[in-house]
Amino acid sequence: MKIIDVLRKECVVAGARFLDKPEALCEIVQAAKKNPILKDVPDEEILAGLEERESLGSTGFGKGIAIPHCRLKSITDFVAGIITVPDGVDFEALDGEKVDLIIFIIAPEAKSNEHLKLLSAISQTLLIPGAVKEILAERTTEAVCESFLRHTRAEIDTRKQTTKCQFNVFVQDETVFRDILEKLAGIETSSLVVANTENVVAYLTKVPLFADFWRDKPSSFSKVIMAIGDKGLSNETIRRIESVTGDLNKCVGVVVTIHDICYAAGSL
């Protein structure tokens, strides 16, 4: 998917004038409704979605730009549009300045990942030197749209990705550490690192209030093995660790946690 696929030309407005932010939000609804995707969605539902998002903090992030957006359960595709406001409008922006470029997104609630990528792609486009100035200089809807798309460089990658997990192995039994590390090194992952840590007991024993609770000297060995790999490797990872420790539910000195990752990129 590319920005060009979700930017609806009929939802582009050049040279708008608004008295205030509430009026601007109402006009965003009207501009968005020009696309058939939203024809059966009540104006009130779209406006409520935009207002709810603004209640969390203004989408006017500064330098005359605002990217109001919301997610709706009732749609399955994106509607994005552009509105230029030559005289500016008070959008309660973070820097206190008036907003003269509005790019809005009405997104399906079920596609939050694509929504995030779209926001990122738009913001990156607007950071291109001269892009905003050129867009604002245009006087027709066609020219505004073409100017924005000309500066668009980022594509929205919606390819299905293998679900990733983060594997954490907390080890305070030095006798099994090297064997566990050796077993995990043979599993295909995008990273495998070891972090030196310290048991909280080592700190709390130094606090007078807690000093009497731990009379034994705390273990001086504490490390965490961390790796990112496919979720399908979870059972194999646990099996390999238990080949060293035995049943983890009966093990002392080793704790294993596995967490789903919503985003992962790069490698070590």
Key descriptive features of the protein:
five-stranded mixed beta sheet, 9 helices, about 270 residues, about 20% strand, Alpha-Beta Plaits, alpha+beta
Task: Walk me through the structure.
The protein is α+β, with helices and mostly antiparallel strands. It folds into 2 domains: 149 residues, Mannitol-specific EII, Chain A, CATH 3.40.930; 98 residues, Alpha-Beta Plaits, CATH 3.30.70.120. The protein contains 9 helices and 9 strands. Strands 1, 2, 3, 4 and 5 form a 5-stranded mixed β-sheet that branches. A hairpin with a 2-residue loop joins strand 1 and strand 2. Helix 2 crosses helix 3, helix 5 packs antiparallel against helix 6 and helix 7 packs antiparallel against helix 9. The protein is elongated.
Overall outline: elongated
- Count of domains: 2
Percent of residues in beta strands?
15-25%
The chain-level structural class is alpha+beta
How would you classify the quaternary structure? single chain
Report, as a whole number of angstroms, the end-to-end distance: 29 Å
What is the mean pLDDT? 88
Largest sheet: 5 strands, mixed
Find the CATH topology of the largest domain: Mannitol-specific EII, Chain A
* Radius of gyration over C-alpha positions, nearest whole angstrom: 26 Å
Give the helix tally. Answer: 9
Query: At the fourth CATH level, what is the homologous superfamily of the largest domain?
Result: Mannitol-specific EII, Chain A
